[in-house]
Amino acid sequence: MTRVEDKHLIEQKPRVRLDPIPKGYRAVDERLEDYEECAICLTAEEAMAEASRCLHCPDPATCYQACPIGNDISEALWYVEKGDFIKAAEIYRKTNPLPEICGRVCPSETTCASNCVLSKREKPINTRGIEAFVADYQRRHGGVPLPEKEPPTGKKVAIIGAGPAGIAASEVLAVKGHDVTVFEAYPTPGGLLVYGIPSFKLDKSLIQWKTDWLQDLGVKFVVNVKVGETISLDDLIEQEGFDAVFLGTGAGVEATMRIPGIDLGRIYQSIDFLIRGGNVPKAWLPEHKKEPLIIGKRVAVIGGGDTATDCLRTSLRLHAEKVTCYYRRTEAEMPGNKDERKRAIEEGAEIVYLSAPVEFLDRDEDGNVDAMVMIRMELGEPDESGRRRPVPVEGSEYEVEVDDVVLAIGFWPDPLLGETTPDLETQKWGLFKINQWTNETSREGIFAGGDAITGPALVNAAIASGKKAAEGIHKYLTEPSLP
Ligand SMILES: Cc1cc2nc3c(=O)[nH]c(=O)nc-3n(C[C@H](O)[C@H](O)[C@H](O)COP(=O)(O)OP(=O)(O)OC[C@H]3O[C@@H](n4cnc5c(N)ncnc54)[C@H](O)[C@@H]3O)c2cc1C
User: Fold this and answer.
1) Phi, psi (deg, nearest 5) at residue 384
2) What confidence score (pLDDT) does residue 2 get?
């Protein structure tokens, strides 16, 4: 057998000819009846066969370069091919604290898979499916051992926000011997992994498992505490004695529309719709979100990203009959994951491009929306995002009848901490200003990462930035600063 170090000596030609293992999804009728994951996990045989297609490009492989977390994908695939799934899982866990999550939600078609050399001629390796398979395998076969911790440093670190950025930072810091406490505003840790991404994309028990594992590692979780409201950031530092803080507070404030009728009933913000719409166990919901959502037959979702797609698919699971996405640009400019959009269409959602609402109507005057005035758009010059700007076509208004409307048009960070913490500087959209090398904010000892510094992004980017900030915090706490 070729040794790992010699894997570049393998013959590539026969591998190029191997057929890819098709990705599996549950039948549409079956998956619309529940909120279980839609994707079917690879079997051991399938994972091995898929991994054996890897050409093991010379280091650094393009897939590795494209992974924001720096997973050594080629090395892991080598062990998967040989059937050593535990070793492969260990390789992923060396760099990624959440491989079972990334293996389910990473948009690999824009990162590792799109950079796989096989994507030029054949289908790229299903890197995401393999990562999920080996991480699941390890949990189920002996579990994930706790890493050896460095001796206690006597330093206390507060992590604000238990999303992927906070989770990643907490693990790195706990392993380095710091005393870590995570403060979370919601009743359970996870951030958007719990209170955003639907359970048909991501089994929420995986986050519960990770939280338990972190607690075994010594990380403390304090939930239902909104820092800046329940306790100020300065009180955490001065009264509770935290030596450093990580802000992983995400971008949880939803954008709305300034058009007539926006305040009518049955016009929902996306997160409210997703979490009350069956994707989160009731026990994990805050009191004011526990009332289940009862929706009508016709649902309109406004927006074109992943969140919009998730709302379409949730509406279908709530048994809406006509579920339509209205997007103001064309498919070419749509920011969301194509694969997920395909699943939504398969499940019965429709997409209307180049259309946006200009007014919500309440014709029967019961306080709830029952129709929308829409306007058609055409594309103009590119805007600052580089995408062509939608321009309303004069006189093209038309009306659409609806029972419920969901707004999925964007997010920005909560200004609370910036407003309640002296000298903590924010910039455009309320993002925390940071030192690009260390992730330290304008306040010494306070670091930030994830969506709170980039705006709405991805789980892999939040993990990478939580890890980077944790390294910055460790350095701050252990290395004397230069005079
Ligand atoms: C509907 C939806 C679907 C998505 N789907 C995908 C996907 O398929 N793949 C993908 O890669 N990405 C997806 N994303 C994006 C991804 O979820 C985020 O980029 C990622 O979760 C950001 O991580 P974070 O840790 O920075 O913030 P978050 O996950 O938002 O976590 C921040 C946490 O901080 C808490 N918090 C905020 N303020 C305070 C405070 N003052 N005190 C205490 N706690 C506070 C919040 O309650 C929250 O729990 C999706 C996002 C949404 C909304």
Assistant:
1) -65, -20
2) 47
Measured in Å, residue 249 CA sits from the centre of ligand 1 at 8
| Whole-number pLDDT of residue 116 | 87
- Taking domain 4-140, whether its CATH number is 3.90.850.10 is answered by no
pLDDT tens per residue, range 406-415: 999 999 999 9
The CATH superfamily label for domain 256-409 reads: FAD/NAD(P)-binding domain (3.50.50.60)
Q: Residue 44's pLDDT is what?
A: 98
Helical residues (DSSP H) of 110-182, grouped into ranges? 127-140, 164-175
In SS3 terms, 261-290 reads as CCCCECEEEHHHHHHHHHHCCHHHCCHHHC
pLDDT of residue 7: 66
| Architecture of the CATH domain 156-252+412-478 | 3-Layer(bba) Sandwich (3.50)
Low-confidence residues of the chain, pLDDT below 50? Answer: 1-2
Amino acid at 65: Q
Which residue is closest in CA terms to ligand 1's atom 38? 249
Cα dihedral across residues 413, 179, 141, 7: positive or negative: positive
Name beta bridge partners: 159: 182, 246
Q: Where in the chain is the domain with CATH 1.10.1060.10?
A: 4-140
Q: Residues enclosing ligand 1, CB less than 6 A?
A: 105-107, 160-166, 183-186, 191-192, 196-197, 201, 226-228, 248-250, 252, 274, 306-307, 310, 414, 416-417, 450-452, 456-460, 462
Residue of 76, 48, 80, 46 whose CA lies nearest to 63: 76
Q: Is 81 exposed, middle or buried (0-12, 13-18, 19+ CB in 10 A)?
A: buried
Q: What is the position in ligand 1's atom list of the atom closest to the CA of 451?
A: 26
Assessment of whether the complete model's pTM goes beyond 0.90: yes
Contacts of 47 (CB under 8 A, 6+ apart): 80, 85, 129, 130, 133, 134
Where exactly does CATH 3.50.50.60 map onto the chain?
A: 156-252+412-478, 256-409
